[in-house]
Design brief:
This protein is mainly α and 222 residues long. The chain has helices spanning 2-26, 36-43, 45-57, 81-85, 128-141, 154-159, 176-179, 208-212; strands at residues 99-101, 109-111, 145-146, 163-167, 184-187. It has two domains: 2-57; 99-212, no CATH class. The protein has eight helices and five strands; from the N terminus they run H-H-H-H-E-E-H-E-H-E-H-E-H. Strands 3-4-5 form a three-stranded parallel β-sheet. A two-stranded antiparallel sheet has the order 1-2. The longest helix has 25 residues, at 2-26. Belongs to the glutamate synthase family. GO terms for molecular function: glutamate synthase activity. Residues 102-195 form the Glutamate synthase domain.
Length: 222
């Protein structure tokens, strides 16, 4: 008998919970009962209840124990060390954003801003039109774009005023004739969990993209 009652109660509760969850995930957020949870987390249970009391009664509430006390969260005060050492530069003072990489090199790389386009490969990550668009954007603001783990895309090189080629795992860029067309060389030591092992599988590259990668036909992958 107890087992029968237990199963009945469990079945009833399970059905009710399933219906409540199904309704919660279907209803619009503005009409959803779940809205109470983020609202409570944001304004606090006390404030939420007092707002509801004012709205229902239409009069100011009378707290029997007085107004709540809010202490300043001093532990959340953060200091910027550089501003403790010296005051920030005034707004009317011009700031030079140019930077030179490899000042001792024969041909250093000078950028107008200390921001560069990250290494994103043609074919493996981005399309040809996207790479050309990024090259145009980099040229417009006086910075460099990066080939990523790919070969030398002629249209990208011709569009970019400053172009960084990547000595990469796949061997797509790794020939002296391509180095001569670069403004700087980035050496790829690895890529996250993939490590430094080269990847030249047909699953990675196919169709017209394969022709653009300029694969070493005599290269042998260990």
């Amino acid at each position: 008998m107890l087992r029968l009652i237990e199963n009945f109660i469990r079945s009833s509760i399970n059905e009710s919970v399933d219906k409540a969850i199904s309704r919660a995930i279907r209803d619009q957020y503005t009409e959803n009962l779940f809205e109470m949870i983020p609202a409570t987390n944001k304004v606090g249970m006390t404030n939420l209840m007092e707002i509801a009391m004012r709205a229902n009664q239409g009069t100011p509430i009378s707290r029997p124990l007085g107004s709540p006390i809010h202490m300043s969260p001093w532990e959340k005060i953060l200091f910027n060390p550089v501003h403790l050492f010296r005051f920030p530069t005034p707004e009317n003072v011009g700031i030079r954003t140019s930077i030179t990489i490899g000042q001792r090199a024969r041909k250093p790389l000078t950028l107008s801003i200390p921001i560069m386009i990250a290494a994103m490969s043609f074919g493996g990550a981005l399309s040809k039109s996207t790479k050309i668009a990024l090259a145009k954007a980099a040229t417009a603001v006086g910075t460099a774009t990066n080939s990523g783990e790919a070969g030398l895309l002629k249209e990208e090189r011709d569009t970019a005023h400053l172009f960084i080629g990547q000595y990469n795992r796949g061997g797509w860029m790794n020939t002296p004739d391509k180095y001569k067309r670069l403004d700087a060389i980035e050496i790829q030591l690895g890529q996250g969990a993939q490590g430094s092992a080269p990847q030249r599988t047909t699953a990675k590259i196919s169709g017209r993209t394969f022709e653009k990668f300029l694969v070493y036909t005599r290269a042998k992958t260990p």
